[in-house]
Amino acid sequence: MVEQFVGTWKLTSSENFDDYMRAIGVGFAVRQMGNLVKPNLLFSVDDEGVISLKSQSTFKTTEIKFKLDEEFDETTADDRHTKTVITLDDGKLVQKQTWDGKETTIERSIQDGKMVAKCIMNEVVSVRTYEREA
Description:
Oligomer: single chain
Number of strands: 10
Number of helices: 2
Radius of gyration: 14 Å
C-alpha cells in the first residue's frame, strides 16, 4: 500500500503553513524561509521494506529512513529532535512526532492523483498539496 507514495512529488500549494510552523515553535526567520521554499519529496522503498522520505529544497535537504510502526529518532528541517512513528492507516501514511511534551501529526494521502499532506498541531491544520513529477 506504501507503493502509491513512491516517486518524486513537487509542492504545488500550501495553506496555513505559517500558522502550523508557529504552533510547533518555529522561529520567525526559519518560518520566512519555510514559506518561500517549494520542496520536492522523494519516496522510495528498498527490498527490506525500509522507506526513505527525502525532502529537497534550495533551503535544506533532509532524509528519514524508517520501517512502518517502528519508532525512530528524527531531526526535522526546523531542527527539532523528535521521537517519530509512521504508520499506514486506511491508506494514509500517518507520521507522529513527539518532543518536549508536544505532539504533531502529518497525514499523507493520495487524492485524485495528488499527495495531500495534512499537518496538525492541536487545533491548527495546514494542508500542503504535491503533484507527481514525470
